[in-house]
Structure formats: structure tokens, C-alpha cells
Amino acid sequence: MTLRRARRYVRVRRAVLAASVLTVVGTPFLAARFADRSWPSGVFVGATGAARALGVELLDPLLTAGVALSGGARRGLLVAALPVLLLVVVLGRFFCGWLCPYLPLLAVSNAVRWALARLGIPTLDLRLPGWIRFAVLGVVLGGTGALGVQLATLVYPPALLARTAYRLAFGLGLGGAAVVVAVVWLFDTTVSRAGFCRSLCPGGALFSLLGARSPVGVRRVASRCTDCTVCDVVCNLGQGPMTDRVDAGCERCGRCVAACPTGALSLSFEGRRR
User: Fold this and answer.
1) How many Cα atoms within 13 Å fall on the side-chain side of residue 273?
2) Position 71 in a domain
3) Structural domain range at position 36
4) Is the pLDDT of residue 199 over 70?
5) Fewer CB atoms inside 10 A, N or C side of the chain?
6) Which pTM does this prediction carry?
């Protein structure tokens, strides 16, 4: 993949991400505005967890699993979840890199970490074992099934941010969801770079499981690689493209590909993860 194509890929991803963030933030305010009038529902209705675009239902797999486990399983629910499930199976953990509304906050977190380092103020970068995110996912889904209550919405950043946006739109204040987001952001900023996304997010864990056999991945041409480590450094999720250590945790953001000075990396259907 040429550097120009890689940068175009990143620009497209950022545009899609911006649209996702605007949807999460803007939908509540539109709902508040149209509360006493007809909602223009022909094009788009909903937000991150559940939406309808041009008549197609789009459901978040994690929240769908929570509804099913809490006793709300219906055939229609499973059918509506299929489009996104198929995308995750084919494209892998792309939601985290393309659509998650927490990403702008994570970018700010990384910038603050960099600024603190420039000022000589140390920050930790704790690396938690990879199995922890799957344990968190198990606790969330197991607890949901046992209690009959959707628990993912208490710790899943897209749901937390959507709920905060709705509270603000209807004048209800920030609420507890904003507190959880603030704690997550402080953890990422001071304890572990992108640590929540990498090691604790139940959504990321589920997407990694569903996309474990995705044919899309990062491929490296060893003859072009100079072992400069740039690709490893820019990755938020602790992947190692320089040494072909890219697993199902890759979010298909393309940052490593765009950062490679020699064009040794590419995102393609030939990419194979170990």
C-alpha cells in the first residue's frame, strides 16, 4: 500500500468517525427539538447502540447480547443484529477504530500524556494481561444473564457517552455515566495508555472474538522494513506490526500503515494474524 493510499484510508476513517461522534452527540439534541413534532425518520433513527439507517437495522453486538441474556431474546432482535455481526466477522474489530465515540477522548488522552512527558511529569504505562478483557466480558455477560439486567451499559464507553449526551440534551445534568467516562479517561491518561480499550473494554473483547478469523489484516513486506519501530509506537492497542505480532485486537485504524516511512505495511485480505 502506497503512503498516499494509506493516508487516504486514514482520512476516510476519520470522516466516518466524525460522523459517528456527531450522531451520538447530535441525535439527542434533535430528539429534544422534535419532541413535540414529527421526527424525520425516513433516513436515520437512533444512535450508537441501536439505529435504523435507510430502513436497515443496526444493533451493537454487545448490547444485543445483553438484551438476549437478560430475557429479551426475540427472533427479530437476532435478525436485526446480523448486518453488524457479519461486518465484524469479516472486518474484525473495526468498530473500535472507525466508529467508537470514545476515540476523540482517547486522542486527547494521548496528547496529555505526551505533554506531561515533555514537562518531565512521569505517567505509568501499565500493561495488563490480554486475558483480562475476556474476563471482564464474561463477568458482564454472565452477570447480565444471572441478574436479568443489562450491565454492559454501566461500563461500555459508547453507551455511557450516548447516555450522557441524552441527559445533557434534556437538561438532566451529566449523571453517573459521565463520571465513569472520566474515570476511564484518567486511567488511560495516567495509568495505562489506551489501557481500557486494550485490556478492559467488554465491547473490544467481544469484537476480537467475533473477528478472530477475519481475512482482513496488516501485512508486512520484510524486505522493505527497516525496524524503525514507528508502527509499534503509534499503535494504541499494543500490536506489534514491525515483528508481525498483530492479532485479533487490531482495530483496523491504519495508523501503523500510514506511519510506515518505507511502505512496508498494508491492510489487505492477505493479512494473516498470529
Assistant:
1) 25
2) yes
3) 3-210
4) yes
5) C
6) 0.88
